[in-house]
TrEMBL record:
The keyword Nuclease is assigned to this record: no
Catalytic reaction annotation: ATP + protein L-histidine = ADP + protein N-phospho-L-histidine
Protein name (database record): histidine kinase
One function term, GO molecular function aspect: protein histidine kinase activity
Native source species: Duganella flavida
Histidine kinase domain segment(s): 196-403
């Protein structure tokens, strides 16, 4: 405000100076015309300059408007599009890797979060082996590859594309883990197969069992009309048929349960309480050789408690037959997923058989039916989880359930 007041006084002073000069021009009239004009002009310079400077500083300043460049809007849109594309690639469920050279083995680097998670501790056991496997794939083809993880062997679909970036030939590897999807399809196929087989076998066995019982009754009624030796032979044969038919009915009924697993009814479950129930149920058999642990103790999960209990009972039944001690532990893994580990100190599973232990009808036991682990996989998958046989750190077997 003080500065503005001073400027106004300056304007007044300049205007007064010019007015005084006009009066002085009349006083200087005796001086010849040319000299008087020059003298007045010289005297007017100071007040006119003062008046101009003050008026210029008092005038409102107009904001400086810059005309936008024609390329500004497209550049901003391009930058936004690049950021959006980068975000989509970063969070893509497909793992992307860059292979430096266009042919042969080159340096491999992860390009997004999925690729980094795949090679982080807890997933691939040997990231360098996975990198070499990717670099060795042919360009322009899709292949199903398998690599070892801490949860067991995992399969993935890989596609390799060639491209040139800033004059440098590179390859882009897109890796999509499909183990869970393949397992789900295999489970559906086995379920349908078992359902058809058990249906057809039961249709044939039921009349055989019924007719054998009827024949035994008729034989008893006609016992007086047949010789003793013939009656004994017929009775033995019919009894054997009846017994084998009943045994096969029981055998097939156990497999029918694979195709009739009820729909999971998830509810909030406190794992520590579920483990306490299992411990009370199984402790007489294990005699303090079975331990449970949950970290943290307050961990809860949305799951069907009955089906999870049955899956763990099947795993612990195998452990009881194979080893002398077993452990069940639960904790959160990377990504906040629940990880339940069941391990024992038995002989473990031979490497050549590890890929088949979850297959229905497959068993390493002489009297085994091959249904225990197959049922575990059905129950776990029905609750949105996966089960793997993992290589044990020492001796024994180790199964990992992830939800």
């Amino acid at each position: 405000m003080a500065s503005e007041h001073a400027l106004k006084l300056g304007v007044a002073a300049g205007a007064a100076g010019l007015m005084a000069l006009s009066v002085a021009a009349d006083i200087l009239s005796p001086i010849p015309e040319p000299r008087r004009i020059v003298l007045c002009a010289l005297l007017a310079i100071a007040p006119a300059s003062l008046l101009w400077q003050c008026l210029r500083r008092l005038s409102p300043r107009m904001p400086h408007m810059e005309m936008p460049s024609p390329d500004a809007a497209p550049s901003r849109e391009l930058a936004d599009a690049m950021l959006a594309l980068e975000a989509r690639l970063e969070h893509s469920p497909i793992a992307l890797f860059r292979i430096e050279n266009a042919s042969g083995v080159g340096a491999v680097a992860a390009l997004n979060a999925s690729a980094r998670r795949l090679t982080a501790p807890g997933r691939a056991i040997a990231p360098q082996s996975l990198h070499q496997l990717l670099a060795a794939q042919a360009t322009g083809q899709r292949q199903l590859i398998s690599f070892d993880t801490e949860r067991g062997a995992e399969r993935a679909l890989v596609a390799i594309s060639a491209l040139t970036m800033q004059g440098s030939a590179q390859r882009l590897a897109a890796l999509m883990p499909v183990e869970s999807e393949l397992e789900a399809e295999a489970l559906n196929a086995w379920r349908e197969l078992v359902q058809v087989l058990t249906h057809e076998i039961m249709n044939s066995l039921t009349p055989v069992a019924s007719l054998s019982r009827t024949a035994c009754s008729l034989l008893e009624e006609a016992s007086e009309q047949l010789p003793q030796d013939i009656h004994a032979d017929l009775n033995t044969a019919l009894d054997a048929i009846a017994r084998r038919a009943a045994s096969l009915v029981d055998f097939v009924s156990s497999y029918r349960s694979l195709s009739t697993v009820p729909q999971a009814q998830p509810q909030r479950v406190l794992l520590e309480e579920l483990f306490e129930r299992l411990k009370a149920l199984l402790q007489p058999q294990w005699e303090n050789r079975l331990t449970f642990s949950v970290e943290p103790a307050s961990m809860e999960v949305m799951i069907d408690p009955g089906q999870l209990e049955q899956a763990l009972i099947n795993l612990l039944k195998n452990a009881a037959e194979a080893g002398t001690e077993a452990q069940v532990s639960a904790r959160l893994s990377r990504g906040g997923r629940l990880r339940i580990e069941v391990s024992d100190n038995g002989p473990g599973v031979p490497e050549a058989l590890a890929a088949h232990i979850f297959t229905p009808f497959f068993s390493t036991k002489k009297q085994g039916r091959g249904i225990g682990l197959a049922m575990v996989r059905h129950l776990v998958h029905g609750n949105g989880g996966t089960v793997r046989y993992a290589r044990p750190v020492g001796a024994g077997a180790r199964f990992i359930l992830t939800f």
